[in-house]
Amino acid sequence: MKNLYIAGCGGMLGDAFYNIFSKKFNLKCTDKLVNEKWISKLDFTNYNNYKKDVESHDTNILIHLGAKTSLEECELDPHETYLNNTTSVEHAVDISNQLNIPLVFISTAGIFDGYKDIYDDEDIPNPLSHYGKSKYLSEKFIETNSKNYLICRAGWMMGGGMKKDKKFVNKIIKQIINNKKILHIVNDKNGTPTYTYDFANQVLHLIENNINGRFNVVCQGLTSRLEVTREILNFFKLNDVIKIKEVNSDFFKKDYHAQRPFSERLINSRLNKLSLNIMRNWKVCLYEYLNKDYKNLFNENNKKIF
C-alpha cells in the first residue's frame, strides 16, 4: 500500500478525499485546523515544516488540496491569499521534485473570466479575482517547474454536509431551515456543479492509471444557480411552499463584493478524449448528496427536525 500525503484536508473536499483514498492508500492528512481525529496539524505555508512532514511519511504521492477559498476574504487580504494559494504550492512543487514523487493540485473554474459560455481544458484563463489569479499563478508555476504533476480543475463544489459545506447548496439549505419563504437567487451566474465524492473518485482514477497533465473535472451537465435551487426545493417537495425571486448579482453586492465570472461552465474534454471521464450528471450527484447529508432535516409533513 503506497503512502499518500494530503495537505489542507480539513474542508469539504478533504472529507471526500479521506473517505475515498483511505481505502487504497496509507494516508497522512494535515491542515491548520484539526477538526477530525484523522487530521494532524500543519501549516503548509511554512516550507521547512511542510517538507519535514512529507518526508516523515515516506510519501509516494503528494496531494496539495487546501486553499483560501472565500472570494471576499481573498479580496480583502491579498497577501494571505497568495501566501496560501500560490506560495504554498511553490513549496509543494519543490518538495515533490526533491522527493521525485507526483504532485496533485486542485484548481478551479474561477480562473476564467466568464465571457465565454463554456470552457474546455485548452481555453486561456483570465481570472478576475485575487482568488482566481492566485490559483492560475499556481497552475503556471506547476506546469513550468514540476517534474510530475496532475492539475484538476473543479467547478461549483458541493459536499460535506452541514459541518463542512460552505458553498451554495448549504447556504440554500440554511435559508430553508431558517423559515425563508422567498429565496432571492441570481439569474446571471452559470456553472457546472462538482460533487466532492465524484471529484475524489475521478482523481483516484487518474492516479491509478498513471495519468498526468491538466484536466477539467466537473459533473456532467450545464446549469445555473436558479436551476440548482429549483432542484433542491424539488428534492424536499417544497416547490409550493418556498418561492424563488430572480435577482441579478448586484442584489448581493454588499455581502459578495468580489467579482465573479458570469459563466464558470467547464466541460471535461480531455477526460472524454482519453475515455477516462467517470463524472456523473450533476442532478444525480445533487440528489445523492442531499439524500446522504440532509434527508433527515424534514419529516413527512415538511416540518423541520432538530
User: Tally the helices: what do you get?
Assistant: 11
The poorly predicted ranges are none
Mean residue pLDDT: 94
Oligomeric state of the chains in view: single chain
Largest beta-sheet characterization: 7 strands, parallel
- Range of helix content: 25-40%
Radius of gyration: 19 Å
Shape: globular
Which sequence of strands runs across the widest sheet? 3-2-1-4-5-7-12
Structural class: alpha/beta
Layout of secondary structure:
Blueprint: E1 3-7, H1 12-21, E2 26-31, E3 39-41, H2 47-56, E4 61-64, H3 71-76, H4 78-99, E5 103-108, E6 118-119, H5 130-145, E7 149-154, E8 156-158, H6 161-164, H7 168-177, E9 182-186, E10 190-191, E11 193-195, H8 196-208, E12 213-216, E13 223-224, H9 225-235, E14 243-247, E15 263-266, H10 269-273, H11 282-293
Parallel strand pairs: 1-2, 1-4, 2-3, 4-5, 5-7, 6-15, 7-12, 8-11, 9-14, 10-15
Antiparallel strand pairs: 10-13
Helix pairs in contact: 1-8, 2-4, 4-5, 7-9, 9-11
